[in-house]
Amino acid sequence: DNGCNDKSRGSLIVFEGLDRCGKTSQSGRLVSYLEKKGVPVESWRFPDRSTSVGEMISSYLANKSQLDDQTVHLLFSANRWEKRSLMENKLRSGITLVVDRYSYSGVSFSAAKGLDIEWCKSPERGLLAPDLVVYLDIAPEKAAERGGYGSERYEQLEFQRKVAQQYQTLCDSAWKVIDACLSVDSVEEQIRESAMECVSNCLKGKPLFE
Ligand code: DGP
Ligand code: NA
Ligand code: NA
Fold this sequence. Notes:
Blueprint: E1 12-17, H1 23-36, E2 41-45, H2 52-61, H3 69-81, H4 84-92, E3 96-100, H5 103-111, H6 117-121, E4 132-137, H7 140-145, H8 157-170, E5 176-179, H9 184-203
Parallel strand pairs: 1-3, 1-4, 2-3, 4-5
Bound molecules: 2'-deoxyguanosine-5'-monophosphate and sodium ion (NA) (2 copies).
2'-deoxyguanosine-5'-monophosphate (DGP) binds near residues 61, 76 and 152.
């Protein structure tokens, strides 16, 4: 199904960036804004730690279990796949999804460990393509200064530098790249503008792509 029969639908808006770039707070702000504008919207995030796959991921991230890099890559991907049909149903029923991390995190974090990038992309193929990718751009050193990282597996400066390099290779001209070091309000304003344009295109019947 290539989605050509779509009429109005919700938008798939994805936030990406390094740990501590401000994604979680900005995606929350966008959801509140869209709600106020009367746009049916839900806040989502990946990994979704509430499923049994998500619990395995969470335990891995907390260093409570060990998994090899390929295995954990496929678990993160499976965690998106297990939500795919629900996401599609929501979008087709007119609900906009604002998602904190998606396939680009999947590819960037695993490729940063040295896995082949094409291998990393493979299991993501067939997931729904976002209508808008918001990339909150921050230097790894700046992100590290923001109250420091937590204790999860990937929250280390050296690793985040490698993740940033991988995001660079994935980033294309369709992404909305925003300087995450601007004021919170100015970042929010730029996101609002792109999101409203995206929502109105989807209401006009922009097809849903895999
Ligand atoms: P978060 O809940 O957004 O803080 O994400 C938890 C950590 O997992 C964070 O360091 C980013 C990383 N991450 C998110 N998605 C993926 C993924 O698909 N693959 C890998 N390897 N790491 C991911
Ligand atoms: Na994190
Ligand atoms: Na986050």
